[in-house]
Amino acid sequence: MFSQAQYEAVIREIETGLKTFQGQLNQVIPAANSATSHWYVPPPVAQGFQWIAEKTVEVGAAILEWFLDLLKGAAAPIFMFIDSWQWMDIKGRANGISTDLTGQNLVVDDSDWSGKARDAYLAAAGAQSTAAARVGSIAGSSSLNLLACAGAGLAFYIVLAGVLAKLIAALAVSIAGMSSGIFTAPGIALFLEEAGVSTAVIVTAVSTLAAFLGAQVTAMITLHGDAVDPTSFPNGVWPVSNTGQYSDATVTDGDADWSLQHD
Known about the structure:
Layout: H1 4-35, H2 43-71, H3 76-100, E1 112-114, H4 116-180, H5 185-188, H6 190-227, E2 248-253, E3 256-261
Antiparallel strand pairs: 1-2, 2-3
């Protein structure tokens, strides 16, 4: 399911987190320089420490750019949700038309109308009812598919928000270690390790989302096939709403009968 309020909150969380993450990256090199500037730090250790800090910034910058790219499509689920709502409105209207055109609702005054014109009228109206019902079915399926896509988008960005939170926490530990002077390579490399795990999670999430949306594309193609199905739409168009057979009918009203002939 999709909640627009929840989705907007998740996107705001990611946007805020990216600003925090970018600020942390700006602190890494200065923290490394400060930690290795002491006389008791051997040059080989300082060089190794600087290398880890530089790699941390390099990997972090790449991840930041990746997140920004993934956010470019953040508006899509909201539009999908809005369109899903509108398609459901179309479904309701089309089904209403279909119901109005059913045989039991096509009453001509209080008369008993019979003859070729009546039969032709009901046949033409029945085709309109069937076509309208098909439109309602297509609209309903379109709405459900769009809603499912919006839900998949929400789930995807929730994963991104969780990944970003872990990266921020890992980088905070690394920076704190640098600032405190406890700068063992394994401790500082915590961010790099977390980054490797997190990017793997993102790749899996992206692959899952791509597979899901691929299935939705297949569903939309199927819906297009339904739209041009000659069963409800002869020759791929809306059924004819009039007929030349209206020229002959018989109307019975009480004790009087009239034979209607029209050229």
